[in-house]
Amino acid sequence: MKPRFVSPKVFLGIIHLRHSILWIYNWYLRKFYGMKLAPDVRISLKARMDKTNPTHIDIESQTLIAFDAIILSHDYSTQRHAGNYTTTTKIGKRCFIGCASIIMPGVQIGDECIIAAGSVVTKDVPAHSIVAGNPAKIIRSGIHTLAYGRLIQDTPTQAHP
Question: How far apart are CA 60 and CA 42, in angstroms?
Answer without folding.
Answer: 10
